[in-house]
Amino acid sequence: ESVREQTQKLVQTYLGKPDTLVLCVISGSSDTLRGSRILEEIETHSASSPAFSKTIVVQTKTDLLVANPTQGLPSLERRLSDPYNELGCEPVALIPVINRCGDGISLPELVQAESQRFEEWCALQEGLRSFPLGIKDVLASLNGLFESHMRDVWVPQETSKLDKQKASEQQNLADLGKCLANTEVEVRTVLSRVTTVLQQVLQSTVFEPAKFGAKVSDSAWSAWPLVESQASDSTGVSSTT
DSSP secondary-structure letter at 35? Predict the structure, then answer.
């Protein structure tokens, strides 16, 4: 019972995603395309700016609109020449297609039949040749929209993310210090640094000499022999390095 509401929420969710490309299908048998509910949804919820900058509108049932070629073809040409007036928006393209009909006919045969029908119409209404017509042009327009979005938006966006991640990882590596060679000079340098840091810790408030039996007034560094002594007494092995 809630399938309509679920579908609407699903559409709104995807419209709100910045990388969504929209293929909007509208019945074209009526005199006007304005006021379509799906156009309102795109206008309200699209994350794109402008709202229809990633939208291709497909008009179905064009054969019903052009039932009388002498009357319908001029109307079709006017509609395609001014999509804003017909839709109230500026999509990437407005493309008419002809209904798929007939049982036992393969998809390639249907596409061929559609192409032939549009060719017949173009022979009667030459102005139609300047507009995209049929399912082949729908696919070509969708492919072009996909490629331009990948080139202009997605690739730069992902490259920026990777650059930031790379810089973060390089900083993490730099924080670890330089790579050391296993030489006597390097070892002595590292031990000297460790000794200096250790002495700073022992002389700080972090190290509490009272715990090792020294007077609180004594310096932390003077308590170090007591630590060595206790370690030696408990293990039988001197801890001096």
Answer: T
Residue 203: other Cβ atoms inside 10 A? 14
Decide: helix, strand or coil at residue 89.
coil
Tokens 């590596």 identify what position?
173
pLDDT in tens, 138-154: 999 999 999 999 999 99
- Cβ-in-10-Å burial (0-12, 13-18, 19+) of 75 comes to middle
**Global model pTM greater than 0.70:** no
Looking up tokens 């029908």, which residue turns up? Answer: 117
Beta bridge partner(s), residue 58 = 25, 95
Tokens of 119: 């060719």
- Residues 6 or more apart whose CB falls under 8 angstroms from that of 4 comprise none
Per the document, the length of the chain is: 241
Q: Are 65 and 29 in contact (CB under 8 A)?
A: yes
